[in-house]
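[Discussion] Sanity-checking designs against the backbone

I'm trying to build intuition for which residues belong where. Below is a C-alpha cell string of 705 positions. I'd appreciate it if someone posts a full sequence so I can compare it with mine line by line.
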C-alpha cells in the first residue's frame, strides 16, 4: 500500500535533518557556526629520528586542504564520533568540578528562535565539558567539548528576547556552546567554574612558535637556519591565503570591538590586507587602516609582526632574491617600518624579528632592503607607546626612510620648519627652537602649544609631535568629511609659558620682538583683560613701535588690531518691585489718567538713559573716543625708539593681572624641571617691591606733553 504524500515528505525531511545533524558533529558540542570545517591550523609533522627525540631541523609545516562537500565528509564525522567513548556517566569521578541540569541553546538559536533550548545533564571536569542524556547511571554521552587554554567564556547575560534565560557561552576549537539557566546564581557558578578550569590549563604553543624556538637555538649556524626555512613553507613568502593565525589567539564568537570580527578571523583578514598592498595604487590609507586595527586590537600586533617577517623573507627564504627585485615586495618593508615606529613587539617575536633583520643586512649589505633593515632596527630601540597611528604624511615619509617636516609658528619670527621623526617629543622641538632664536639664556620659559584661533593648549614635554600631527589630520578629515581635506586651522606655535620677565632684554636680540608679539597676541584675546586706560596706553606703544613717530600720512591699522573686542555690556539685574495689594492694583488700573502715563514714560526714559551711560562708560566712551585717546597717547610718545617702545610695552603688560603666575607640577618644555603655570593677580605696586627696570619703565608712562 503506497504511503500518503504528506508522510513521504515527513520521512524525507527527517532523513535530511538527520544527515545535516550528523554532519555538524553531534559527537562534539557544536554551536552557532554555519559550517563545520576542519581545523584551520597548521599541521606539525615531526619525523622521528633514529636516535629518538625531535631534532631542530626535522620540523615541517604544511597548510591543510579545504574539506569537500557535505556528502564526502560524513565518513570523517563517523571517525570523529568513534573517538568519543560510549561509556555512560561516571559515578564518582574525582576530576568533576561541577555538574547539574542546564538548558543548551540549539545550534543557530539566534537565527532560529522557534527552536526551544534542550535540557540536559552537564558535567564539567578538568579536561572537558560533557553533555549526557540524564543524570542516572549508564546515561548516554551526547557530546564533549575539550577545554584548552585558548577557550574563552563570556557571560552570564540574560537573553530576554530569545529565551529569557541567563546564558554562559563557552567557545572551543570549532564550536561554541551556550549554556542556559533560569537562575542567575546558577549561571554565575558555571561561568566561574569554567574560567577557573581554563585558567589552570598550560598555555598552548602553535607550530610557528616551535619553529621560532628552533631558529633561535640555531641562530649561530646559518646553514641550519636556512634549512629550517627551506623545509617549512609557513616561514616564507607566499601568495596563497592564510587559514589560521601564526600565534595562539583565543577562540571566541564575540567581537573584541565595534566593527571587528573575532581575533582569529581578524588575523586572517590582516594577511589578506598585506597581500592587497602589492597591487594597491594608494598604499597609504591601506597601511593606516592596518595600523589602526593593531592599535584597537593589541593582541594582533605580534601576529602582524610575524606575518610581515614571513612576507619579507622571500619565496626561497631570507632575504630572497625575488623579494629584492620585485617593487611590490617593498610594500611589506614599508609597512614593517611603520609598524616598528608605532608598536613594540613582544619578547620572542622581537628576537625573531631582530634576527631576521640581521640576516637580511648580512646577505645584502648594499641593497635597499639592508637600508630598511637598519632603519627598522634603530626604530625598534626608540619606539614607545603611541597614542595614535601615523598620519598619511608620516607614512609617506617613513616609506622613504625620511624625516617629517613640521611647521611651528613663532610670534615675531614667522614660521619655522623643524625636521622630526616618529620619536621626537614636544620638549625636543621647543629646545631646538629656543636655541635657534637665541633664547637659551632667557629668564622666561617657553613651550610648544597647539592653537586654533583663540583656542590653545600647552603640550607636555613628553608628548610625541607625530601624534599631535595625526590628531590635526583627523580633525581636518572630520570637519571636511574628506580624507584629502585642507588644513583644519590647528597649528603648532612656540609661546611664552609662565610669568613674563621683561628685565634685562637686549634690544638687538630675538627675545624682545618675540615677547612683544606674544604679549600683544595675548592682549588681543582678552587674556588678561587690563583696564581701559592701560589698553589705550598699550595701543599707543604698539603704534610707536610699528610706525615710529606720529604722522598724518601713516595708514592707521584698524582698531580691532590694536585693542581686544569690547566686552558685552553687563545688564543690571532687575530689582524686585514691591507688589501692591490687589485692591490698590485694581484701583490703579481702573483709574487711568494722562498724568499717570506721563510719569511712567518719564521713569522708563530715565532708566534707559542711565543704562546707556553706564554701558558707554564701561566701553571707554565709544569707538571714536577710544581712537582719539589712542592717537593722543601716540603723539605724546614722539622721539621714543622702537626697542624702547617694545620694552615699555612689556613692562606695562607685565603689571596686568594674569601675567603673574603660580607654579604647579604639569610639565614645561624649555626647562629641565617640569612646571606649568596658573594665572593669578599681580600684587599692587604698594604691596611688593618692583624691579628697577619695571619702575623706570612705569615712570616713563604717561610721558609729559
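Best answer:
Here's mine. Compare freely.
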Amino acid at each position: 500500500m503506497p504511503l500518503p504524500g504528506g508522510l513521504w515528505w515527513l520521512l524525507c525531511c527527517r532523513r535530511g535533518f538527520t544527515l545535516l545533524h550528523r554532519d555538524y558533529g553531534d559527537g562534539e558540542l557544536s554551536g552557532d557556526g554555519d559550517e563545520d570545517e576542519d581545523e584551520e591550523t597548521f599541521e606539525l609533522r615531526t619525523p622521528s629520528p633514529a636516535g629518538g627525540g625531535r631534532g631542530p631541523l626535522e620540523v615541517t609545516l604544511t597548510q591543510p586542504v579545504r574539506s569537500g562537500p557535505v556528502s564526502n565528509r560524513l565518513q570523517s564525522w563517523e571517525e570523529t564520533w568513534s573517538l568519543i567513548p560510549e561509556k555512560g556517566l561516571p559515578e564518582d569521578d574525582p576530576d568533576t568540578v561541577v555538574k547539574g541540569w542546564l538548558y543548551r541553546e540549539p545550534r543557530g538559536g539566534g537565527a532560529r528562535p522557534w527552536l526551544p533550548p534542550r535540557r540536559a545533564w552537564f558535567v564539567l571536569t578538568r579536561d572537558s565539558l560533557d553533555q549526557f542524556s540524564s543524570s542516572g547511571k549508564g546515561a548516554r554521552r551526547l557530546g564533549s567539548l575539550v577545554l584548552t587554554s585558548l577557550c574563552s567564556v563570556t557571560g552570564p547575560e540574560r537573553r530576554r528576547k530569545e529565551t529569557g534565560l541567563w546564558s554562559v557561552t563557552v567557545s572551543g576549537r570549532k564550536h561554541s556552546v551556550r549554556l542556559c539557566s533560569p537562575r542567575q546564581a546558577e549561571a554565575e557558578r558555571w561561568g566561574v567554574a569554567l574560567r577557573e578550569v581554563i585558567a589552570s590549563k598550560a598555555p598552548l604553543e602553535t607550530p610557528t612558535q616551535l619553529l621560532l624556538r628552533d631558529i633561535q637555538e640555531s641562530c649561530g649556524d646559518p646553514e641550519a637556519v636556512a634549512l629550517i626555512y627551506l623545509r617549512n613553507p609557513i616561514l616564507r613568502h607566499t601568495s596563497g591565503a592564510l587559514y589560521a593565525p601564526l600565534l595562539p589567539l583565543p577562540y571566541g564568537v564575540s567581537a573584541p570591538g565595534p566593527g571587528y570580527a573575532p581575533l582569529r578571523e581578524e588575523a586572517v583578514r590582516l594577511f589578506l590586507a598585506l597581500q592587497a598592498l602589492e597591487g594597491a595604487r594608494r598604499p597609504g590609507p591601506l597601511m593606516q587602516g592596518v595600523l589602526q586595527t593593531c592599535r584597537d586590537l593589541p593582541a594582533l600586533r605580534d601576529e602582524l609582526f610575524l606575518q610581515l617577517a614571513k612576507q619579507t623573507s622571500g619565496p626561497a627564504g631570507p632575504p630572497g632574491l625575488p623579494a629584492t627585485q620585485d617593487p611590490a615586495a617593498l610594500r611589506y618593508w614599508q609597512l614593517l617600518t611603520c609598524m616598528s615606529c608605532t608598536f613594540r613587539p613582544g619578547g620572542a617575536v622581537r628576537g625573531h624579528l631582530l634576527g631576521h633583520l640581521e640576516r637580511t643586512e648580512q646577505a645584502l649589505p648594499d641593497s635597499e632592503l639592508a637600508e630598511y633593515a637598519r632603519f627598522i632596527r634603530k626604530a625598534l630601540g626608540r619606539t614607545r607607546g603611541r597614542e595614535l597611528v601615523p598620519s598619511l604624511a608620516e607614512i609617506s615619509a617613513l616609506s622613504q626612510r625620511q624625516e617629517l617636516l613640521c611647521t611651528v609658528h613663532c610670534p615675531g619670527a614667522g614660521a619655522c620648519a623643524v625636521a622630526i621623526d616618529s620619536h621626537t617629543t614636544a620638549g625636543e622641538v621647543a629646545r631646538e627652537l629656543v636655541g635657534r632664536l637665541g633664547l637659551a639664556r632667557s629668564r622666561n620659559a617657553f613651550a610648544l602649544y597647539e592653537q586654533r584661533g583663540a583656542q590653545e593648549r600647552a603640550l607636555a614635554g613628553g608628548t610625541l609631535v607625530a601624534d599631535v600631527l595625526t590628531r590635526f589630520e583627523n580633525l581636518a578629515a572630520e570637519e571636511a568629511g574628506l580624507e584629502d581635506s585642507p588644513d583644519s586651522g590647528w597649528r603648532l606655535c612656540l609661546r611664552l609659558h609662565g610669568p613674563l620677565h621683561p628685565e634685562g632684554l637686549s634690544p638687538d636680540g630675538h627675545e624682545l620682538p618675540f615677547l612683544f608679539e606674544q604679549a600683544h597676541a595675548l592682549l588681543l584675546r582678552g587674556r588678561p583683560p587690563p583696564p581701559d586706560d592701560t589698553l589705550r596706553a598699550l595701543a599707543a606703544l604698539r603704534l610707536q613701535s610699528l610706525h615710529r613717530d606720529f604722522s598724518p600720512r601713516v595708514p592707521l591699522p584698524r582698531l580691532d588690531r590694536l585693542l581686544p573686542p569690547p566686552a558685552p555690556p553687563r545688564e543690571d539685574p532687575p530689582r524686585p518691585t514691591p507688589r501692591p495689594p490687589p485692591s490698590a492694583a485694581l484701583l490703579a488700573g481702573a483709574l487711568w489718567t494722562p498724568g499717570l502715563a506721563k510719569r511712567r514714560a518719564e521713569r522708563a526714559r530715565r532708566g534707559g538713559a542711565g543704562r546707556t551711560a553706564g554701558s558707554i562708560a564701561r566701553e571707554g566712551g565709544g569707538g571714536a573716543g577710544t581712537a582719539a585717546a589712542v592717537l593722543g597717547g601716540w603723539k605724546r610718545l614722539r622721539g621714543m625708539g622702537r626697542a624702547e617702545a617694545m620694552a615699555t610695552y612689556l613692562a606695562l603688560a607685565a603689571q596686568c593681572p594674569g601675567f603673574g603666575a603660580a607654579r604647579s607640577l604639569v610639565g614645561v618644555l624649555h626647562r629641565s624641571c617640569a612646571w606649568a603655570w596658573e594665572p593669578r593677580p599681580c600684587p599692587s605696586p604698594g604691596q611688593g617691591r618692583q624691579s628697577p627696570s619695571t619702575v623706570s619703565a612705569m615712570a616713563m608712562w604717561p610721558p609729559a606733553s
